[in-house]
């Protein structure tokens, strides 16, 4: 994107100048100013105000009017859409003192400033709203609104505990929508007053009964819409602390989208309407079946791919020569084995023959060196009876007994003494 810089000495376009940076030389545009104002106003959110109705013009089902402050020195314009008007008391009129929940609106094109009313009630609620805001601040400081302490709802509760008014639209809405999503859903319903003096004690008693039931996995407190006065019971501190102390997850389904009792902040889940509560508590059987079907299809595809891959791998292995004709490897090895065996036999035979020849040689050498060979040539060995070989004639004086060993045995003899040498 190309950015065009203004020529030197030329002021930038008004739309490019932020209002806070404007000057006589570089003014901003009205559109830019109005856009800035609208962005600032949009951050204000909704506020509760008290005043007197000084204008009430009904046009096209919508109301355009004004509220004047009690001092008479300030007023605001408001608009009230027909959808909101249907939920307000029918007796609102000029001159009434009211408490209204308003949200600021600023129109860029016209530069008009007005407020949109989301709730309006006769005066008298101001003190109650103040007390509720103090209680809201106290509970928030204690951590009862902390998201970390909120419990997760079960995916598919075995039994849903329902606290609601007897034969109420809220009860029918929760049952109908829950059964449409999961036909086999089970409820344990306890009817309680949903407004008036009996609302808080009966709701607390029902809550404790359902919380003590081991089969109940989630508890829904449901009521249709109403004005702030009728919904005060669901902002009662005793009820809020009982909900915070419950061990079973609690769903708040009080009123319509714009209704906001303190129970919505303390409960583990806030549903905008009883119908929304039914949709949040149980899953949609059609969606779950579709998910199961998708998972089955994915598993079937993955399994088919795996089997196909393994078959391909097996075919590749079987196509190798060693597996295509495994007996060839055995034949080659058998020939090698036969050759090695033959070589082994030859080596052993040669070694045996060499050993035999060597043995014969040794035997011949032994025979040549053996005294027996000498004796076989006619020689004899004389030795005393003590076994001493006679090597000197003096060892056998006359009369001495000697043993004479010849080639074929030995015999005893007696010495006649030394024999004189011939020629001596």
TrEMBL record:
Residues 1-29 are annotated as: Disordered. The keyword Cytoplasm applies. Residues 29-121 form the OB-fold nucleic acid binding domain. It is found in: Cytoplasm. It catalyses: Exonucleolytic cleavage in either 5'- to 3'- or 3'- to 5'-direction to yield nucleoside 5'-phosphates. Bidirectionally degrades single-stranded DNA into large acid-insoluble oligonucleotides, which are then degraded further into small acid-soluble oligonucleotides. Belongs to the XseA family. This is Exodeoxyribonuclease 7 large subunit. It comes from Microbacterium flavum. The lineage of its organism: Bacteria, Bacillati, Actinomycetota, Actinomycetes, Micrococcales.
